[in-house]
Amino acid sequence: MKTASPFSFPVSPALAAKLAKLGLKRDSDLILHLPLRWEDETRITPIGELLPGQTAQVQACVREAKVTYRPRRMLTLIVEDDSGVLGVRFLHFYPSHLKAFQAGARFRFNGEVRGGFLGLEMVHPRFAKADDDTPLPAGLTPVYPTTAGLGQASLRKLIERALAAPIDETLPPEWREELGLAELESSIRLLHQPPPGCAQHALESRAHPAWQRLAFDELLAQQLSLATSRQAREARTTLPLPHRRRLTAAFVDTLAFELTAAQARAWQEISTDLAAPHPMRRLLQGDVGSGKTVVAALACLQAVENGMQAAFMAPTEILAEQHYRKLAPTLAALGVRSGWVSGSQRRAEREAAWRAIAAGEADLAFGTHALFQEAGNFCRLGLVVVDEQHRFGVGQRLALMGKGTEPHQLMMSATPIPRTLAMSFFADLDVSAIDELPPGRTPIVTKLVSAARRDEVLARVRDACVGGGQAYWVCPLIEESEKLQLQTAEDTYGTLVEQLPGLRIGLVHGRLKAEDKQSVMAAFQSHEIDLLVATTVIEVGVDVPNAALMVIEHAERMGLAQLHQLRGRVGRGARESVCVLLYETPLSELARARLKVIFEHSDGFEIARQDLLLRGPGELLGQRQSGLPMLRFADLERDVALLERARDLAQRCLRERPEVAARHVERWLGSRQAYSGS
């Protein structure tokens, strides 16, 4: 039995599978599958007028076609028109090509003109059979994103079929006029089929009013979806956890410092949320070392003093265990019982920990993803704290949320989120920012050093450690293989032991057993180790005030956020702190730009903004947004004004015309509405 096509025209299962790879599952997806670029095939340039470096289209007769074998196998053509002769080369070709290019056959060739050994030539131009009376296109020819087995010509025909039907306007005319936006239908049709004389530069720079309309609609759909998610969350109820000021005040009294104004402000915002009868979804962001953990501990204590449990989840065992070992003794003195769950625990230990949590004998559970991956249950989970939230996927967080009856949630990030990103992808969350560092933090001097000067860096490390200090030596990140990264760390450790005799050198990496990892870190913290060789497992959470020097090898391979996180491991004591970024040459343009940013800036918010400019939102969002559509047409830096207008209109739309909101979101997101209010 045939299944009905989701398109308005017949599509074979094989073709449907190819379209699905591009996210094209219905007519409206095809309509919004806009060109990557446009090619001007509206005119013919005589061969005699061609210039090297020019992209042009010629119409010519094949004079000669042959396969040559030097310097490699290729198909070479000599083609001509009334004004001159042109060489054409195909490095990859099929027998059918040779058969088609018979002497006397006429073709149009479109490509970049190069200066060749025997004169001007085109290499791998686009071509089509054409006689003198074959009409030229009336407008620019669109080039679409596609996939293997789906050619441009086929995709163009499918999009033309989808465009045969009228395109409904989703915005009321008065709103569109008020915002100064072009009509939707005319905008979409213009981008697919630009008319003669349409400015190609305005199209490709996305400055054309048609692009502005599409960018606005996309941002509006995103804002509507996130606002709907927030409304749904605020309509749900949960157990309020009012501030009783017993445990929290006692905890603040144990601190050797006063909360900064930014910490106090963030804590007040979180405390107010916890007291509300709706589930909190707050993001606490702050630079490396700004004191987020203390604020999170206060939130956990507010849950505990209301008779509820809290879960404190971190992405790595080193960080999760450090939170546990740092906070548990202080909390125990206040009568708060802590539990620890990790994947590397012996089975008996882990089962005992879960029994205590399930029985309510542990008020606060620390752990990694083991907290949600395992079958254990909480007795009365009231708050979930997720540290370094971008490391966890939506599904992972939801799994932990499922262990409680609508618990409050506090997410933390030491990668500050630029304002436009917060307005866009995090609009369903409340955001608190700790935007000042505690007093006494030593400024960190960043030095860029070529790997050719490695001996000078070794001498500096030796001097620092002999003088009573400690240092980190971070090994390069090798994303392709954890095994290779481990090998690199072990090789570096062996080399440094040889090159720095007399220094006590330790090694820590992700493959070490938990107890061995903890043992090495404890030895480093107690100054039994002078130099710690580490992979990027030390990126977050490690706090050794006496370590004032860090060397990062192959810094050019790392992202800005990671470099900033690593650098934040020093500058925690009174010594002058230095971070040496060793790099290999030659540098790519992106690597050079990243190193320039990290050298010139120490403010995490500015670094995050520059990162957004360099990479776009995808990587900055991390796994939190897995499953959510990235922006295809809007640019968060360029379209700030559109984003602000879309945010305002989304609120008005939901308030005044909810049916318009529903229709608009359906057109833009359809089945991809993954904003689940998580």
Automatic annotation (TrEMBL):
GO biological process: DNA recombination; DNA repair
Catalytic activity as recorded in UniProt: ATP + H2O = ADP + phosphate + H(+); Couples ATP hydrolysis with the unwinding of duplex DNA by translocating in the 3'-5' direction
Domain Helicase C-terminal: 453-613
Pfam families recorded: DEAD, Helicase_C, RecG_dom3_C, RecG_wedge
Keyword set, alphabetical order: ATP-binding, DNA damage, DNA recombination, DNA repair, DNA-binding, Helicase, Hydrolase, Isomerase, Nucleotide-binding
Gene3D superfamilies per record: Nucleic acid-binding proteins, P-loop containing nucleotide triphosphate hydrolases
EC number per UniProt: 5.6.2.4
PROSITE patterns membership: HELICASE_ATP_BIND_1, HELICASE_CTER
Domain of life: Bacteria
UniProt-listed InterPro entries: ATP-dep_DNA_helicase_RecG (IPR004609), DEAD/DEAH_box_helicase_dom (IPR011545), Helicase_ATP-bd (IPR014001), Helicase_C-like (IPR001650), NA-bd_OB-fold (IPR012340), P-loop_NTPase (IPR027417), RecG/Mfd (IPR047112), RecG_dom3_C (IPR045562)
NAD keyword on record: no
SUPFAM superfamilies: Nucleic acid-binding proteins, P-loop containing nucleoside triphosphate hydrolases
Any one GO MF annotation of this record: DNA binding
Keyword Isomerase: yes
Alphabetical list of CDD domains matching this protein: DEXHc_RecG, RecG_wedge_OBF
Domain Helicase ATP-binding: 273-434
Function: Plays a critical role in recombination and DNA repair. Helps process Holliday junction intermediates to mature products by catalyzing branch migration. Has replication fork regression activity, unwinds stalled or blocked replication forks to make a HJ that can be resolved. Has a DNA unwinding activity characteristic of a DNA helicase with 3'-5' polarity.
Family of this protein: Belongs to the helicase family. RecG subfamily.
Full protein name: ATP-dependent DNA helicase RecG
Taxonomic source organism: Thiobacillus denitrificans (strain ATCC 25259 / T1)
